């Protein structure tokens, strides 16, 4: 099985596309090849495929990157399933992972949610979607400053607080305070829980 993340930028017209799009492309390029494994299309929509155990980390990185831009947010629909046809362009590939992800994005647009998942297992769907609804309450409220600190540590968990403090030109205690405010330890615990749960598929 594979994971397919289909997403769209919320309020994309309220920020310069050149700025957020270049950063999003740079992030995707660091993970995979385009257009076979990721693609941005229709101006503010995108699709990306990855291993199922990487999904939560990728969600955090995409969400935190987009939220560093004032007024921007992102909807993310995760489809877990098979890939029965792999095209040179991800948007032309097919399988249950793609179908689950694409249909789910349409559903969450209608009900006002920003994060959801669909797997072949309904029990896992129930558990993880309850988890995602709770986490979204926190993630959707990230400020640009909060998103920045989350993104830095999510990209490289080996960084020390002192290194990040030097990078941001702030004190180590300020880094520590920011991590506490965003409940970063809880984010990493949620990632561990997600990996354990998704391994049951």
Would you mind describing this structure in some detail?
This protein is α+β, with helices and mostly antiparallel strands. The protein has helices spanning 17-29, 55-67, 96-111, 122-139, 144-155, 161-168, 172-181, 184-198, and strands spanning 2-10, 38-41, 45-50, 73-81, 115-118. It has a five-stranded mixed beta sheet with strand order 2-3-1-4-5, with helices on both faces. Helix 6 (161-168) crosses helix 7 (172-181). The protein is globular and about 50 Å long. The model has no long low-confidence stretch (mean pLDDT 96).
In short:
The chain has helices at 17-29, 55-67, 96-111, 122-139, 144-155, 161-168, 172-181, 184-198; strands at residues 2-10, 38-41, 45-50, 73-81, 115-118. By secondary structure, the chain is an alpha+beta fold.
Sequence-ordered SSE layout with sheet pairings:
Blueprint: E1 2-10, H1 17-29, E2 38-41, E3 45-50, H2 55-67, E4 73-81, H3 96-111, E5 115-118, H4 122-139, H5 144-155, H6 161-168, H7 172-181, H8 184-198
Parallel strand pairs: 4-5
Antiparallel strand pairs: 1-3, 1-4, 2-3
């Amino acid at each position: 099985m594979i994971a397919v993340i289909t997403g769209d930028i919320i309020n994309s017209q309220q920020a310069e596309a050149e700025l957020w799009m270049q950063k999003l492309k740079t992030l995707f390029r660091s993970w995979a090849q385009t257009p076979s494994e990721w693609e941005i299309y229709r101006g503010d929509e995108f699709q990306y495929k990855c291993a199922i155990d990487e999904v939560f980390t990728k969600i955090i990185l995409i969400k935190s990157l987009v939220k560093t831009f004032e007024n921007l947010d992102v909807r993310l629909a995760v489809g877990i399933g098979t890939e029965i046809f792999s095209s040179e362009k991800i948007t032309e590939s097919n399988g249950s992972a793609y179908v689950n992800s694409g249909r789910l994005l349409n559903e969450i647009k209608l009900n006002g949610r920003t994060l959801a998942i669909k797997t072949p297992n309904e029990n896992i769907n129930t558990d993880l979607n309850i988890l995602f609804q709770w986490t979204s309450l926190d993630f959707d409220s990230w400020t640009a400053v909060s998103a920045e600190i989350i993104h830095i540590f999510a990209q490289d968990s080996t960084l020390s607080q002192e290194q990040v403090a030097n990078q941001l030109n702030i004190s180590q205690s300020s880094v520590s305070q920011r991590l506490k405010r965003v409940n970063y330890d809880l984010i990493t615990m949620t990632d561990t829980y997600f990996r354990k749960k998704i391994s049951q598929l």
